[in-house]
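Anyone? Bumping this.
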Amino acid sequence: MDPEDELRDNESTGDGDFCSDDGIADYDYGDADFAESQEIVSPLKQNYTILSEADIRQRQEEDITQICAILSVSRSAACNLLCHYKWNVSKVQDEWFANEENVCKVVGLLHNPVKTSNSRKLNCGICFENYDRSKMSAASCGHYFCNACWKGYITTSINEGPGCLMLRCPDPSCNAAVDWDMIDRLAGFEEKEKYARHLLRSYVEDSKKIKWCPSPGCEFAVDFDINSISYDVCCYCSHSFCWNCIEEVHRPVECGMVAKWIIKNNAESENTNWILVNSKPCPKCKRPIEKNQGCMHMTCRAPCKFEFCWLCLGAWSEHGAKTGGFYSCNGYETARRDGMYDESEKRRKRAKLSLERYTHYYERWATNESSRKKALEDLHIMQTNKLEKLSLRQGLSEAQLKFIIDAWLQIVECRRVLKWTYAYGYYLPEHEDTKRQFFEYLQGEAEFGLERLHQCAEKELQEFLDADTPMKGFDNFRVKLTRLTSVTHNYFENLVQALERGLMDVDSSDPQSSSKSSSPSSPGDMPGKMKSSKATEADDPS
Amino acid sequence: MQASRARLFKEYKEVHKEKAVDPDIQLVCDDSNIYKWTALIKGPSETPYEGGVFQLAFSIPEQYPLLPPQVRFLTKIFHPNVHFKTGEICLDILKNAWSPAWTLQSVCRAIIALMAHPEPDSPLNCDSGNLLRSGDVRGYRSMARMYTRLAAMPKKG
């Protein structure tokens, strides 16, 4: 279908006013159909389990016990096997029963110790001293080292990090694993604790489906079902994050874009851009120079000391009457007219524009983040202090006042979504005018709706907090805030979904767009909700 | 600390015993500091380093032998795994594959083996690594040979 056909299609829907359509348009909650959207869109099913340290320990314990029982090996050996196969119980079994001998060799569980002389005294291969055999130890390989050297060897390894879980016999040619039993016998108390810690962490960090909650100081981990639809998880510590990329929850923006945005925010590249916009390189030594005052006669810093004209970057010694006097460099004017500086000048301009564009989105992104934090604080104050007060004043139980908490939770969530829409906007291709217009419209509506909810949850609530006696308006207030919460929730959920679909609803139906959008979106697949937006564009008498 | 001293002392005695056994390696301990050693190693035969004598500097940590010694070339050498300016050596047994059962003597042997079998895929000297990786063995050999002549062989006349 070519764009013109679509155009006709859109016209035939006849409904030019986006706001009066269903779905998102329901946000216009002042009128009668307000009540229709009261039903809260059900949140996605939870497909993850939060694990405490005790849970992890228990699971780990169960896995070890299981391997012990099935393979009839010692607990230490089971541990070595599981560490090697990244705590994948079925993989350990498969490998073991496919080729037990090979697994033992790879993991370092040896059955035939090397022959050592039968003399009572042996030479330790680390300190080269002779010791009584009773003061020496060996792994399953039978390479004896004195207990003091073993202790040093184990301690060093444990302090170096989780590599100690795969510790091998000190003999460079030997592959025998140093197991838990040996650690237990030879390491100091502190090291044993650390070893246990590494073991616990490896259970989470080596596993493909468990990750630690990234919130600082949080000790929970999240076991995630790879098949679920959304990566968003919420830890018991109340931190919400994307299980896939470990950044905070960022719907509707996808992980890749978040990573790009974060790099951009931290990057030196913006500094480089600034230098490009505001400075020129010295024509001789190429150091960037910022001209912040003074005349066009520039003198580069020592040791270069090159004197040049800021406008044409030519040597100052060549300036004089023939260039139209020192202070007006005709060379520059003429050359610019001839198009000589166009390339670099254009580049500077482009860089400046792009920096301004980035700043625009970044500022709004950051503002929404601080608003979110503020809302989170307000929510906290509400929970710890104000709710109790209100419950006394209005003679209602705190459970009955839960709608206020819900409203505040919604505000926090909305701020988060709104924040990420600015990253989304930044990466929205500039030439896609229709999408951009539609996006900005949706964003504007979202901001407006959120403000209304915020206003109600903050200002209007304050009246009831200030009142000494129960006020009869409270019931109305409850209805209003509950409805606002649910409407805002729905609006944002729809917004998120629309953005996640890449605003396909307005794709390639853009009559003005100069570049043909190539994404193959068929209007027939669109859910009815947002279709009317095309009509908005189509109505444009251009 | 005492352990490292005792162990180095043992190695010192061993070196003097073993001197005749390995003619390619000559390990010398600093007169006043048992944690500083130097070694002279012979470039392995059938390599561009043949005929050269290379000096190595050992700096030994107090936790030795639990931690590896730091070794670098004092003689300039053109080799993919040796830093051209600092002489730093990229060798697994000097880093994560260290075992306390290694000795200064065995480290020298490992370095001689590295001279004969460079690892161009993890180069410290990229020019040298690139020559080998692009298959220009002749180019690599001539460069290495030239630096061996310039830096590791006694001047004639």
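Late reply, but here is one note on the structure posted above: The domain at 58-190 of chain A is CATH 3.30.40.10 (Herpes Virus-1).
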